[in-house]
Amino acid sequence: MSENISATRPPVVTILGHVDHGKTSLLDRIRHAQVAAGEIGGITQAIGAYQIEHKGQKITFIDTPGHAAFSAMRRRGGQAADVAILLVAADDSVMPQTIESIEHIKAAGIPFVVAVNKVDLPGVNPDRVKTDLANNGVYVEGYGGNIPLINISAKSGSGVDDLLEIILLLAELEELKDNSSESPSTALVIESSLHPQIGPLATLLVKSGVFKKNSNLFFGKKNIGKIRSMIDYTGKAIPQAGPSTPFQVIGLSDVPSVGDILTDISVIPSVVEGSHSTPSLRGGEGDVAIQDNSEVTPGVVIETKPMSERPTILLKADVQGSLEAILGAIKDQANIVYSAVGNISDTDIQTAYAAGAEILGFNVRISSSVTKLAEIEKVKFTNFRIIYQLFDYLKDLQAKKTIAQGPKIIETGQATVLKVFNFGGTMVYGCLVTSGKIKFGDKIQNSRISTLKINKADVSEAKKDQEFGATLTPSIDFKPGDIMTATTIEA
């Protein structure tokens, strides 16, 4: 057994689940650090990586954000991991993002364990979670399947040690090989940003080989810097890092994109070919991520706004991961003249002025001199610390832009498809309203709502947080987890 352990590498674990089900609190409990208390609005704002030791064995955790807007980042985290934890709160049970997480895990093809959190709350029924999971194709041990399930409390720590034991067991079954002797050494970019004093920064997760201080780093055949300093997850300098080890690198000449594969020597194209389908335009603060449409969550319906109805914006974000997530969510909702990582500069003001754009920032700063220039040029800048506030603001801009343009199509509400039933060829969609209202006769893509029922009774509308059943004419191939967007014509 000892020989097998010495030939293995630490498992890389990602935690997926619905927002507010306790992912950050669980990581906080595991690594004994107060992270959750320092977050804004309960939303994890960026991806990090942490490594812990349990009974002499190391485990690496990728800290993936939980909101739907970060689905692209979360899916990349799943692909980078060896084992997943599907976290479900006992009081809520299976929710829309739980179903989405299940699809991500299945797509990644990795083993997983179900952790039922908040079992210490009064009146909860953990068995309900097992039933709801089974209804969504996840069969846990004792309920017709072999997927392990652990009841935990991230708050008290109950069951967490058992969860770590299961993770190590699943990793052992996967026989994760220590490939530190492989060349070239490769690492996955987990996070990247542009520091105003230090310059480009990136958090790397070693996939193979060993990275050492002073090694040259390449993206494909392009040298993007030398490792001047390696910082581990505790903030300490380290001389080298092997497989499954996360570290921050200082010394890059460019800001890489999240998901890029970096190597420590120049390699032939076949080594990195297909490892990252999203190309990048590099240039320090001018780093722009070109979006890959495959990163949009499968099944999500996006109502594309005509160019004339889209507000024109310039977007700046604190880190590359946040920038990519925002771009992925708004690319069809705004005319984006420029997007980059970094604080607001004079050039940003001049670019926005020339394009007639408004500047939106996410966790960025603007100096007093740049603020003065913005006032002179009458360029509006708004900074956000919670991503959904940015999205809501953008919707307001859209509404203002379309005022007085005559008849127009407006979005009236959204609903998540929970279940789909086939009654003699008639498709009935069981849904939950997540925003606005869903009304009888509303247009859904190229169909219309032909019946709308709540508790078997015909109704004219369903409001936020209400569940309803509907038929569409013609029917649409919706699946559980898809988003149904209702629109109507407004004179």
Search tags:
4 domains; alpha+beta; 491 residues; Elongation Factor Tu (Ef-tu), domain 3; flat; Rossmann fold; six-stranded mixed beta sheet; disordered N terminus; six-stranded antiparallel beta sheet
- β-strand number: 28
Mean pLDDT rating: 80
CATH superfamily of the largest domain: P-loop containing nucleotide triphosphate hydrolases
Distance between the termini: 73 Å
What is the helix fraction of residues, given as a range?
A: 10-25%
Number of domains: 4
Characterize the biggest β-sheet: 6 strands, mixed
Q: Tell me the structural class.
A: alpha+beta
Determine the strand fraction and express it as a percent band: 25-35%
Number of helical segments with 4 or more residues: 11
Architecture of the largest domain, according to CATH?
3-Layer(aba) Sandwich
So what's the CATH class of the largest domain? Alpha Beta
